[in-house]
Amino acid sequence: MGDGGQVSQVQILLTERCNIKCRHCAVPAEDSPASHEMSTTQWKAFLDAAAAAGTESVVINGGEALVRRDAIELIEHALAAGISWATLITNGMLFGNRAAAQIAAVQQRWPAFGVHVSVDGASAQTHDWMRGAGTFTRLLASVTRLRAAGGRVTGINSVIHRGNVHEFEDLAALAAGWGAEVLTVFPSADLGRGIALADTRLSRPVWLELYERARAVRDRYGLMVGIGGPVMADEWPEDENLVPRPRSERPDKVCIGPDGAVFTCPPLRWHQVGHVGDRCDQAGWTAIARRAARALDESCASCKYLLVCTNVDLDDPLRPRPGAFGMPARASVTTAGGYTATAGARPAAPVPIALSRRPGRDQGDSRISS
Ligand SMILES: C[S@@+](CC[C@H](N)C(=O)[O-])C[C@H]1O[C@@H](n2cnc3c(N)ncnc32)[C@H](O)[C@@H]1O
Ligand code: SF4
Questions:
Q1: Which ligand is nearest to the CA of 29?
Q2: Ligand nearest to the CA of 14
Q3: Model pTM?
Q4: For the domain 9-341, what is the CATH code?
Q5: Given CB 3.0 to 4.6 Å as the disulfide criterion, which of 27, 131, 239, 310 pairs with 246?
């Protein structure tokens, strides 16, 4: 992103509306009306500025982005503007014949357009528990339609918990069978409706086993497997000296809400670093991206969601807990988003909140991309 800013990926929450109501959803749609959303023209102007400023990758997320008719048009616009990669994260419920044909046509013109579908279990029983009755059957039919039209599912996102962890290998087989390249699993984060699922989280021995299982399916299917988790402060015993090692000390992405508010990540949703509507040109976006990169530098090391954002380093998954073996101890800190972290470097002073044009709503979104 140029001069000091190290933000290469922009995650756009195009809308927070959705056509279904998942049990774990971090993005309750109830108070997020279409009237808060930026228009097609405003998004295109932003994408042009982001491309000119060197943004490499755009993830279109939500809510369910496909409830907006312009989602695929915006993805094509981003790629045509010079952004190298664009990924749609979707529940896969809205691939009717017309949408499937449109997605497939854009993927054929732009092979760097990836479609990641969320699959929260490899059976109707587990997926529907999370996403509602009939959703697994509808998802399979959607993927069949997309593939028949010449399109591709390039990745699967799965929220993993005690009720579906036994299906991990089946999820990998499903991904491989669809020709996908990426499988990313996450714990359910304490955001939105997900808060109610805290007691479904995996224990430490199950996470350790999952790291091994992830390496095995990676080798077996040639998939890129990401394991985002655990949510450290909740799931890893305080007396363990070795803790999971994140792949990076901070992510290199920022999020933009439906109304154009820029924030670093869902847990810091109301810690805004700018608004794309303030100055939607290259210089304006570059300045915001630099502020975002600084906020990430200052906040990530003390955030309990770091593993969820960056995934675990599967080839070397454990490191000494800070404080153990003479490493500098980290203090507990409550972040601006209200989440308490118990591991992390010395917490930085809070970054001033800037440029929020619209009052925020008290909700978070999942990543949580892929
Ligand atoms: C918010 S959804 C938006 C895209 C689309 N509606 C979908 O479900 O794929 C993006 C991803 O976040 C995941 N997600 C939602 N709430 C979450 C939570 N509380 N913790 C972890 N992941 C969550 C979803 O399962 C999905 O894979
Ligand atoms: S997880 Fe996705 S599909 Fe499910 S309610 Fe949330 S936004 Fe909608």
A1: 2
A2: 1
A3: 0.88
A4: 3.20.20.70
A5: 310
